[in-house]
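Known limitations

Files may contain more than one protein. Parsers should not assume a single record per file. Below, a two-record file is shown to illustrate correct handling: read the sequence, read the token line, then continue until end of file.
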Amino acid sequence: MRAALVVAATLLVLAGTACGERTEPTGALVESYPVTVHGASERPTVVNAAPRRIVPVGTGPRRVLEALGLKRRTVAVDDELVGLQLVDAIRRAKPDLIVASGDTDPLDLSRARSATRAGVYVEPSASLTDVVEAVGDIGLAAARPVEARRLTAAIEARRAKVAAALAGAREVTVFVDAGGFSTILTRSLLGDLIREAHGRSVAGASPEQGPFPLQRLRELDPDVYLATADSGRTLAQLRSNPRTKRLQAVRSGRFAVLPPDVTVAGPQVGESLEQLARVLHPDAFR
């Protein structure tokens, strides 16, 4: 019994100190399979052994796997394919684990699971907290828990830095142009980052699909006008449009095109939060 307690204590010490090391955990820490993690899908993901072939579907999963040092075990497929073509590409990759973004068709993933018998993890991505949890889940499933803890710690450090910088800062109102004056849902990664950056979308929690009514936008008159990287929107366009040129954000030049990564549920999410916070509250970071 005494020997068993010593072994258990040793394992706990190793688990607690591994964050300061660059090597992957070994021994019992890696061999504690099967592993069960809960992502965004209805059913949990069960991984029976450390996966040797991992197929990412979506930009976020690819970024996470690369940041975890799993590039050699990653098998790329053309994830712009849909339906049976995507399923066939995944089947031919012979994965042990499939890591998919939340916008992947559930039917495609169900068919891929049946065709490969691989575990399928769907990355939650509606908030910064979701991304942190997904990094931890993927690291645990792929036998890279130490690397995952480093990544999540870095994200949380950025988050804390932003929170400290914005302590006491007033909330600013924002409109996000996703192209053609359409906008975003509050319950999205970008919507959550705006909230954490002390911003509030004037479009509300659930704006209707299609262009946001410009008469309503003039009434709401946001402090800041943001455009996604693929929107094609420019400040010159807004200033030349009689329906938008009188917006205070346009008149004052409080306009910014967001970097493409800001909507990616990947390990750069902490940096994306800080970039957004600097746009909304430039004085807080001087």
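...continuing to the second record:
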Amino acid sequence: MIINIVDINNYLAGVIESEGGGGKDLEYYKVQAVMSRTYALKYGHRHHEEGFDLCDNVHCQAYHSMLRFTPKIDTAVVQSRGVVMMNSAGEMLDSYFHANCGGQTSPAEYVWNKPVPFLYSFKDTFCIYTKQATWEKKIPKYLWRNFLVANYNYPIHNTHYENIIYTFSQPYRKAFFHNPALGIPLRDLRNEFKLKSTFFSCFPEGDFVVLRGRGFGHGIGLCQEGAMNMAKQGFNYLQIAQYYFPNAVFKNINEESFFNQKGDLIPK
């Protein structure tokens, strides 16, 4: 096993380049820096029993290597140095993010079966015309039908449900396919058919069921493409972060640490 001992700022720069890529605005990189710093400090001992702090994949945060291609990211880390997201009780928040919410962020309970107190679903108009805002996929009808019947006892012999097995409308985010009583979570359909998101509607076409979807990812927390667009339009990083985490409190832990030192350690 190889353990990389790295300064927090160098680590964050590598994470941001791995997670966000190059060619983005400075204010977007600052938002990502705040989120990644918050995560790293909150879960900094996640792998303590294995002899290190954080892994380098999405179980923690993607970290492919040191910053190599985007010097602007280093500037973003420095200019946001020490800033983290907290709740009103002074606890660091879980800084969730995804590629594109498709125009509406998702309640956490739709994905993880439990709510996150500081996050709620809202319409996001900043990402609806971006690269990953929409998608389409065709699935053979027999695969769709067999999966629903075999795994959830879909009432295929009920005339009403038989007629709508390939038809589903989702103008706003839902948690279940058709009716919660059927017990078919949309997240299960996403996993089974490798869909970009759970935010889709569908209809039959020949031997296929056609899914037209919105967004990419789980939809919880910050929408990366929405945040990128906000940065392009002139919003600063704190405004962007506040938009997606409306109840967050932003604190500079470097300043907090300094002023919380014992009196005899403070320079005179």
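Parsers that stop after the first record will miss the second one. For reference, the second record is described as follows. Residues 26-42 form the longest helix (17 residues).
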